[in-house]
Amino acid sequence: MAREIEFLNPPELMKPVGFSHAAQTRGGRTLFLAGQVAKDRDGRVVGKGDLVAQFRQVCDNLKTLVAAAGGRLTDVVKLTIYVLDAGEFKRQGKPIGVVYREYFGKHYPAMTLVGVRDLYDASEGCMIEIDGFACLAE
Fold first, then answer.
1. pTM, whole model, 2 decimals?
2. What's the CATH class of domain 32-136?
């Protein structure tokens, strides 16, 4: 069976903007993406104090993970975004959206944004962490 991804946005729910309500997959391989923070390959935090720069680094890290497994970011079916300041994430929505489209285009998987009190790497300056799932071709 070939890999299939179908995003579900039933009319009985509010119209999603920038995300899908659900993703259904058939076939393929599942790739579990551990939480990625804004650290480069040398373990240095990129964009301290700059949520948009950190979002870009996290997207780059996600792209690297998916590519290492033979996929593309359009194979991602679920993302959970954890931020120290959800209000700041919303205020930076437009520039974050520009970065998002650079990496994902018009691909909108099921997504959740969670404001959290702390992140494991917050003491080093990380403001955001993203994990998720991808469905890759066999």
1. 0.94
2. alpha beta
